[in-house]
Each structure stands twice: as C-alpha cells, then as structure tokens.
Amino acid sequence: MPKRPDIKSVLVIGSGPIVIGQACEFDYSGTQACRVLQEEGIRVILVNSNPATIMTDPDFADATYVEPITPEVIESIIIKEKPDAILPTLGGQTALNAAMSLHEMGILKKYNVELIGAKVEAIKKGEDRQLFKQLVIDAGAEVARSVIAHNIDEVLGAVDVLGYPMVVRPSFTMGGLGSGFAYNEADLLRIAGAGLQASPTTEVLLEESILGWKEYELELMRDTADNTVVVCSIENVDPVGVHTGDSITVAPALTLTDREYQNLRDIGIRIIRDVGVDTGGCNIQFAVDPVDGRVIVIEMNPRVSRSSALASKATGFPIAKIAAKLAIGYTLDEIPNDITRVTPASFEPTLDYVVVKVPRFAFEKFPAADPTLTTTMKSVGEAMAIGRNYSQALQKALRSLEKRGSSFHWGEQSKSLAELLEEIKTPTDGRIVAVQQALRLGGTPEQVFESTKIDPWFIDQIVLINEVAVAVQEASELDADTIKLSKEHGFSDAQIAQLRGVSESEIRSIRHALNLRPVFKTVDTCAGEFPALTPYHYSTYEQESEVVASDRRKVVILGSGPNRIGQGVEFDYSCVHASFALSEAGFETIMINCNPETVSTDYDTSDRLYFEPLTLEDVLEVIHAESQSGELVGVVVQLGGQTALGLAKGLKAAGVPILGTSPEAIDLAEERGLFSDILAKAGLRSPANGVAINLSEATEIAERIGYPVLVRPSFVLGGRGMEIVYDSNSLIGYFDRVAQYGLIGPGYPLLVDRFLDDAIEIDIDALYDGHELYVGGVMEHIEEAGIHSGDSSCTLPPITLSAAQIERVRSGTEQIAKGIGVIGLINVQFAIANDVLYVLEANPRASRTVPFVSKALGITLAKAASLVMVGRKITELKDQGHLPKVDGTHIPAGSAISVKEAVLPFKRFATKDGRFVDSLLGPEMRSTGEVMGIDVDFPTAFAKSQAAAGSALPTSGTIFISVADRDKPQVLLPVRRLQQLGYRILATEGTASILERHGIAVESVRKASSPGSEPSIVDLITAGKVDVVVNTPSGSSARKDGYEIRAATTAADKAIFTTIAQLSAAIGSFERVIEGPFEVRSLQEHARDRAEKIG
C-alpha cells in the first residue's frame, strides 16, 4: 500500500534527556524518523526537551519544540500546530507513556489526532503484564509463573504461590527501573516497594525465578499487509539475572541450533501478530532453560527499543527509518534496502560476521553504589565491534571501552584461583576479565560454568584466546604466522607486546615490516550476495580489502567512543555537524567510531564509516587504508572529547596531519606551568595553585595556599577525581580513594587550586581562527562555583552579569585563544568573586555546552568550527551565512532566555542495603544528560527546565527546609516568599527557630537521628507528604542526616534544592507555575524573533 495521502503533518515525540536505560539510541532513531518524514514531504513537528541531541536541531523538523514532554505541553502544541497524527514509537518509554496519557485524558479524541506506529491496544497488550501473559499462552508459548500485585499485601501473598527467589518487574518502566530479585522478605519489601512507586500504574509483576537460564532477543518488524521479518537475533553472554542492557551481547545468536532458532522465530511472529504491531518494530525477549530447552517469553516492547539501535548497526538494516515509513502507510516490500538498492526491506538480513556489544559503566562516579549487576540497568553507554569470529569481535569490543583493565591481560595476578572462582559468582562490570584470569590460572571450563552459568561455548572461546596467548608468548620468534593467528583472534599490538615483554611500537614495526595489516570488509545486509553501495566497514585479518579507491580530498573525524558520564551525546553532536559541513564543502568525510547508539555511526551520516575501536593502532590502520588513494587533508580530533584528543600526539608522531589546534597547543592548556605563563602575559588571574604527584607535595601546597582547595587530576574529562577538600585529613582520605584508579603519578600530576567560595561561575564557548574571536555564548551558572559545569544549571544569556563583566570575559577568552594558538573551538571557565575575574580552566576543544548554545542562539558552532579547521576564516563564514553577523556576546534585550538543567541518575544507584546514593553535587560530574527550558523570561524558562528534568515545581503543598548555619541568613527571603505564595513550611529544629524569629510560620519536624516517636522528616518524605526539599550540606556530623533526607527525596521523585543560589533563582518559577500552563514556541519562531530584534 503506498503512502497515506491523509497524513500531511506528524508530531514526533522524542525521548527527552539521556538517562540510564534510555540513552542516545532513541535520538538516533528519532533523527532517522524526522529525516524520512521530511523526505516524504510531510510537515514534521517535534517535541523533545533534550538540547544535546542533533534531533532537536531546527534543520530536522519544520517546528522544533524544546519543551517538557508532559501531556499538558503536548496538548498546547496540538492546539497550535494541528497535526494529523502523532508518532510515539521512536522516543522510548517516555514517548510511549506520554502517548498513553494523551489517550487516557481524551486529548487525542478531542482534537481528532491519530496515533501512528502503534495502536493503543497494541501498546496495552505489550506493556500490560496480565494481558501480555494471556496472549503468550494463547500463542502456544509459555511464560514464567507469576502474580500481579498493586500493593504490599498482594506482594506478600505471592510468596505462597512462587516461593523465593522471586523476580519483581514494575509495569510501564524503562531499563528495568525498580526491578530485581528478592531472596527473602526484606528484599521483597524493599524491591517491590520501590517497584510500585516506579510504575506509573502502581503495578508490579512477581515471577518465578529463572536465574541462570540463557537469554535471547529477536528484533522483528511487521507491516499492514502482514509481512513480518526478523531483522536480527541477539544472544546475551550473561545468563538471566543481568539486564540485557548491562550484559555483553552477541549478534547473531551463536548457541542455538537451527531448530531452536526457528521455534523462537515462530513464537515471535505469532506474538507480533497477536499484539497487533502492524506499522513498526518490536523486540521480544526469551529465556531458554539450558537443562531441558524449555522456552519462556520474558517480555516484549511494542516500539523501537534499545536493542533496535544495536540490531540496526549490526545488520545495516535501518529499523527506525523503515518503522517511520511503515507508520505512514508503506509496506516492507515497497521500501528499497538503502545498502544494496536492489533488495526490498522484506528481505531478512544475513550476517557473515559476528557483532559483540559490551556495556560501559560509571561506578567510579558513585563509590557508595553496589556494583552488582541485576535486572535494573546501570550501564551508561556501550561499545560495539564487528569481527569475522566471536573471539575477534569480543577482544575488539573490550578495547573499545577505553577503560584501564577492561581488556584480557597476561600480567601479574594477585588473586588465587579459588578467590577468582568465588568473585565471578557475582555479576559485575569486570566479570569477563575475571573469568579469563580464572581460566588462565588453571580453572576448568566446568568450574567457571558452575560459578557463572555462562554458556560453555562462550567459556570455551576464552579458553581458546588464552591458548593463543600462550602460543604467542612461547613462540621462538614472532613470525608472520604467529602474529596473524593472534590478530585473527582480536589481539591488539599492546596485548602482543605485553606477552613478549617489548613495547607496542616495536610490535607495530615488526608487523608492518612483515606487511601484515588488516583488510576492511563491508556490512552489506546480505552476506555478499549483492554489492553494497554504502561504505560501512570493519577490520579483519584476511586477504581481500573492500575499500573502494577514491580520488577526493579526505577528512577523517574521530568520534567520542562509548557514552559515559562526562563524555556523552554532546560530542557526537559536534562530530555529526562536522561531517555534514565538510561534506557540503566538498570533502570526503570518514567517520571512525565504535558507539552503536549514535547518529555518527549511521551509514549515511558520513561518506565512509569505519566501525572500529578508537585506539592508536586501529585508527592508524584506517588512515593507512584511506591514504592509498586521494589526498588525506587531515584528522579532526577536537570534537570527540578526551577520547579523540588523547590520540592526537600519537597520530602526529606517526606523521598524520592534525586539523585545527595542534597537539602541542592542546598541551599548553593542560600543562599548568605553561598555561600560567599565558595568563601572566595576558594580565589574567587564576586562583592560587600548585602541582603535585604525591600526598606530601599536595599537603604542602594546600597548607601554603590555604584550605579549602579544589583537587583535580590532569588529562581527564567530566571532572573525574575532582573534589573540594576542607582539611588535611580529608586530603589523606582523597588519596586513599583514588589510588586504585591510577589517576595521579609521574606524568599525571594532580592540580591543587585555592577554592573560591561564593563565586559566580561563567562558561564561554567561542571560535578562533588565528585572527578573530567569535563568541558562541556566555553562560552563567546558577549554582555557585564548586559544582561541575556539567551538573550545574546555567542560563544563556547571563541574568546577573553586566555588559562590562561580559566584555571582560570576552576579551580574556580572546587573549587565551591567541596565547594557546587555537584554530577552532575553545571553552573557558571563569569565576567572578568580589568583582575580580579569575580563569579556572581553558579547553581548546568542543565542550559539552556547544549544542545548548546552538539551540539557544541559533549559532551552529560545530559546523563553523569544522570549516575553520580546514582553513576558512570567520569573516568568510559570516559572509556565506554559516554564522550570524552578530556573535553571542551581547544579546538584544527581550530575547528568549534558555536554562540548561542536568538530569542525574541517583535513582539507578543504590548501596548494598538498598538505599539510594547521595544526591549532593560536587566538582566531579555525575549527570547523564540534560534538558533545556526556553521562554521570554528566566522564571518561566527555569520552571520549564525543572518540569523537563522530571522534578516539576508543585503549585501548592509542603516545602521542607534544613540548611547549614552559613546559609541561614540567605534562606529567609526565599522562604518568606514561599509562605506568602501559600506553601506550608516544615523545618528541623535549628532552622525552624530562626525562621520563627523572623515571623515565618513554620512547623518543626524531627530529624531522623533524633529520638522520638512522631514521624521523622525521612518518614514524611517517604510517605509522600513533602513536595519540595531544600537541604544544604553542613559539617560531617550533620552529613548523615542530610544524606538520609536527600536519599529519601530521590526515592520519592520530589524536587530537591541543595544550594541556596538555586532556591533563590527558583522563587520566580514557583510564582510562574501557580499562574497556569506554559505557552509554547518553536525554536524556528525564537530564531525569527531574534533576527527581528537584531534587525
């Protein structure tokens, strides 16, 4: 059936901020959908609160609303834009839940808007546990024995039916939030209590335990003509018990017989038909008992899921793009395959390679969190690798993680075999390496299976890798056959060097002298049956390379690798923009990256895509292959975060041209002594500081410059290891804590700075071409200095800085850019204390605020930066319309104000006893994503940012206040205003007595640590009787109370303020939410307003 003529405009609901369980894979799918719909001539209206993704760029939709994804806001957009249909299946659980709310509130019916991509009935059947269970049974398949509960009494009643251990799964949540295994009543009360709260329908499913079973997934698509295809089968290496997002997974499934696979395929097709998904994709998870082969269906997602991104990248089959086409009426046989251009989309992909995905975790950011992997997802990103066999793909994927100790090694091992066999019984992020070490120390595959329940075939593959290592170690000389054998099993030059006791560069020289280099194969969806027309490559050590020669001028762009806290989708945004801009400028663009979730690894983003680890060895081999034809203009390293920057020196040493700021200039900004000279020449100040490589040096500096001090390791991203230290005992504790991460030592100095209390922090993003500075934007942080810029709310334009102060910031940035020798982007952080401007740090690279600046002011900084790197001048870019004539230094009065707010993952990380980790912010970054609020004034923009971040300000209710002594004078005015607005005020004894003295009506409430029978503040928060919490931390004795209060607030999903600056900023926003619903304006409308004001 061809395209439906009645759909002229579609509202696409995005997935909102990046959170654990719902990361940038949904931006990738949403971006694809927007592009497809525009190509089909349909007007695209988008709502998404996330400024960091390329999806919210004004080019990707006709009307882009960066607004909170709430039913009320979506209703306002429907009234204004009058879409014919809403597409909610490409924005994860956020979009699906929003669509269900619109249906239940009668909004879809009221405005006659159709839901496309999935019908309400299909969503209900897939998401409602009871309906789905019945449907699976009707399809002739089995489900785990289960009970559905809506309260704790029903939960406890299930014990008689199911016994322990028991699985708890809440309905309508994402990434396994609130789920877990209960081994006893205490576990059950804790997990099910959290699960009932996490579920929007207050419903949990309790199931018999299938721990240790094998887990599989099928990714399917179906159209209105009942054509159904299985796009990809995926197998989890970890058995049931670890969330699929946290497990190492492999595609295609490797341990199923053909008969077993066909059985899963038949069940999957029956389920997708019975659920009624007929215009899009779905994902079905199965468990198979390894003892008797019993198959049960775990769950299904009636939408594009996290695994869809992996399946798309693994097969070259663009699931989201095809789902969007099916939603507007096409059938699979009418859609051509982009890669072969001769086969239709109803042709199932066939793989002649193996794909392995490995998750990336961030437990180092939450030292108190329990690192055990469970059914609640905890990973923050993932890396994918492609090889000709499992061992090659696995080793490539492990080195793609860029984490010390993540690859197999053959060095010293302090633990005994017995200790390792005990350790691997618990699934953790390092378990696969511990398995390899146990086998290396003589553990048998049977012992490892008993400890882990990992399928024996996967264990045998690690035995094989260890055997190859022994062969390399014991070879009398390193000949071509030995190196080739190791490379066929994925060994890196660094691993071979460790086995031989020589340097990595020596191995590389021997390998090149033997003319041993990888060849590059193509992902073609059909195992070589038809020629592929899109250059999407992976490396392997075989005979024939499939890289087609080209005579063009080439630019290589290094991506940012797996998502992590501190280096997220913002960097991918800049890489994609560079690819688009350089392609338009006539260059052939070559992307190297290993992250399957992102737009940069889409086969049609760049002219050529290499899905490879971002290590020096792998990148040099791609560059060598591409240097065989055409002209290599250079490599872009300043857009991919610390990952790409870290390769700059090695590439330059190998004779590869680096575009933009040179590696030496990048070092100037990191090297404290050299940077101080630049500041001195420019007459700029920085806080008193010093450099140390051990505890005694650090103590001496701290005592000289005076506490508090800010300590931070050099050459890290996202404030890794950064802390504020108040005394010498705390400094000793700091060194003890970071010792295991190897962040400090010779060549890796610790920077010690005097910490500026009560300073305003400022961020500036700018572009420098060697002659002229072009400011993207000057941002003012809402929290005072000391909170990492990635976690702080910030506003653009600044709301308390004068024009003269902004001019000082601009001129300081220009002198720093000139002194360093920047060609491209620079981000500088300043602080103003007592009207003195201090320079905190400068980064000559793309920063995480580049996309936010671009959305707030309509300045495409990353595109312009990539053109500056290939020699264009800023004056040229202004003349050609790539940059507005007026930069972002001074913004006309009356322009919209944008507020960026961080989204924090504390809800995902609990301590071993099940309490949430502390939600206090500090200089080390902990947020996974961000949202943006934009409106004509600051109070409304700030209120929108809070609503978008999931902690909307209430229009009435109870506010609890407990602040440190130093904050008590500042808290009086905000609290007085809140009381005038009609909020009820609660406070602990100390704060309450001061508020009462100032005539503020307040009710005193007991601290959790004080004795007494009446409910404590923690009890009240847990019972949902407090709507907003204001808690600023004080000395260590009161810290425990503060922690209990903040952990309870996180668990209850309530708004929390941990700084007075943020509370003061929010007062106007409380007034604003009481006034009524928000008005909405698209980015395109804001851009027109700005253009008129600039005139």
Descriptive notes:
With 1095 residues, this protein is an alpha/beta fold. It contains 39 helices and 38 strands. A seven-stranded antiparallel sheet has the order 14-13-10-11-12-15-16, sandwiched between helices. A seven-stranded antiparallel sheet has the order 31-30-27-28-29-32-33, sandwiched between helices. Strand 27 and strand 28 form a beta hairpin. Helix 15 crosses helix 17. The longest helix has 19 residues, at 456-474. The chain is globular, with a radius of gyration of 28 Å.
Main beta-sheet strand count, sense and barrel state? 7 strands, antiparallel
Within the largest sheet, what's the order of strands?
A: 14-13-10-11-12-15-16
Tell me the strand percentage band.
15-25%
Helix content: 25-40%
Number of strands: 38
Radius of gyration, rounded?
28 Å
**Average of per-residue pLDDT values:** 88
Outline, from the CA principal axes?
A: globular
Low-confidence segments? none
Counted by DSSP, the helix tally is 39
**How far apart are the first and last residues' alpha carbons, in Å?**
49 Å
The helix-and-strand class reads: alpha/beta
Structure characteristics:
1095 residues; alpha/beta; seven-stranded antiparallel beta sheet; 39 helices; 37% helix
How are the SSEs ordered, and which strands pair?
Elements: E1 9-13, H1 25-39, E2 43-47, E3 63-65, H2 71-81, E4 85-87, H3 92-104, H4 107-111, E5 114-115, H5 120-127, H6 129-138, E6 146-149, H7 152-157, H8 159-162, E7 166-170, E8 180-182, H9 185-198, E9 204-208, E10 214-222, E11 228-236, E12 249-251, H10 258-275, E13 280-288, E14 295-301, H11 306-315, H12 319-327, E15 354-360, E16 381-387, H13 390-400, H14 417-423, H15 431-440, H16 445-452, H17 456-474, H18 480-488, H19 493-500, H20 504-513, E17 519-522, E18 536-540, E19 553-558, H21 569-584, E20 588-593, E21 608-611, H22 616-626, E22 631-636, H23 641-645, H24 648-653, H25 663-670, H26 672-682, E23 689-692, H27 695-705, E24 709-713, E25 723-725, H28 728-738, E26 750-754, E27 760-768, E28 773-781, E29 794-796, H29 803-820, E30 824-833, E31 836-843, H30 850-857, H31 861-869, H32 874-879, E32 897-903, E33 929-935, H33 938-948, E34 958-962, H34 968-980, E35 984-987, H35 989-997, E36 1003-1004, H36 1017-1022, E37 1028-1031, H37 1036-1052, E38 1055-1057, H38 1060-1075, H39 1083-1094
Parallel strand pairs: 1-2, 1-4, 2-3, 4-5, 18-21, 19-20, 19-22, 20-21, 34-35, 34-37, 35-36, 37-38
Antiparallel strand pairs: 6-9, 7-8, 7-9, 10-11, 10-13, 11-12, 12-15, 13-14, 15-16, 17-18, 23-26, 24-25, 24-26, 27-28, 27-30, 28-29, 29-32, 30-31, 32-33
